[in-house]
Design brief:
The protein has about 80 residues and is mainly α. It contains three helices and no strands. It is elongated and about 60 Å long.
């Protein structure tokens, strides 16, 4: 009766333990230099540049959602800043 649940629980605990054992505390960047600069200072400067180019406009009504592009900074940085 409880055998299936027990096996599931033990398997889940084992998987969580193994995942933590092999996980690093900080994920290393895998696209640095391809979709965004590989230098943190260059990233900060690029983001500041995009944000400084935006002309804020008043928002009428209530904001209930935000849509943000998911692409490299060179492709969508200006849109993301807006």
């Amino acid at each position: 009766m409880f055998g299936g649940k027990r096996v599931t629980l033990v398997t889940l605990c084992f998987c969580c333990f193994i995942a933590r054992l092999y996980a690093s505390d900080v994920k290393e960047p895998c696209a640095a230099g391809a979709f965004y600069p590989d230098n943190p200072r260059q990233i900060a400067n690029l983001v500041d540049k995009y944000l400084n180019e935006v002309k804020p406009e008043p928002v009428e009504g209530e904001i209930f959602a935000l849509i943000s592009p998911h692409a490299g900074y060179g492709y969508s940085g200006k849109v993301a800043a807006y």
